[in-house]
Write a structure and sequence with these properties.
Elements lengths: L4 E9 L3 E3 L9 H11 L3 E5 H7 L7 E5 L10 E4 L2 H8 L4 E4 L3 H7 L5 E7 L7 E2 L8 E8 L9 E7 L34
């Protein structure tokens, strides 16, 4: 069984903030539509606090909630004890979407192949931040949208890929860094995202 493509999906303010008091801090209907379109039909991994903030199943998606609480359960979800358990539950899915929160993003980032990022052109106060994006991610697409009746801030939808991720082992005990000279660090040129 091959490993699925791991995609983080997140809206981040210019100051790195993603939320406050376990809630989103903006009204962005365009971002919510994008989230729905990109996650539909795929397993969505999130932490318990993120689940609590949503509070309901996501139609058309399998929701895998990571929590250390062995007794936790909620209708329309599957419980994972950790990252490996979440990937096991995802089974043979081609792509797994990671939807937060901050701790889950930090845990998933070393495994990520892609980030579907909404840059929110604002700098609100908050208590949850997205981790620094490693320099081996490359922007492959973007679209800017101005604020309007449905979106209270200007946003930029960005797709970032880690070109060499497919050449890296999924076992995190072994880590190779891409080489600038040779592309992916093993003599092969850097490739685009997985099809």
């Amino acid at each position: 069984m091959s490993s699925p493509l791991v995609t983080l999906i997140v809206a981040v303010a210019q100051n790195g903030v993603i939320g406050r008091d376990n809630a989103l801090i903006w009204r962005l209907r365009g971002d919510l539509r994008r989230f729905r379109a990109l996650t539909m039909g795929k397993p969505v991994v999130m932490g318990r606090k993120t689940w609590d903030s949503i509070g309901r199943p996501l139609p058309g998606r399998r929701v895998i909630v990571m929590t250390r609480d062995a007794a936790w359960s909620a209708p329309g979800t599957e419980r994972a004890a950790g990252w490996d358990d979440a990937m096991r539950l995802a089974g043979d899915a081609e792509e797994v979407m990671v939807a937060g929160g901050a701790e889950i993003y930090a845990l998933a980032l070393p495994h990520a192949d892609r980030i579907q990022l909404t840059e929110v052109m604002a700098s609100p106060e908050g208590d949850a931040r997205f981790p620094a994006i490693p320099p081996d991610f490359r922007e492959v697409a973007s679209e800017t949208r101005p604020a309007g009746p449905e979106d209270e801030h200007d946003v930029r939808f960005v797709t970032l890929v880690r070109p060499c991720r497919s050449s890296l082992p999924r076992d995190t005990s072994e880590t190779r860094k891409p080489s600038q000279e040779s592309g992916c660090g093993d003599g092969t040129p850097a490739a685009g995202p997985k099809p």
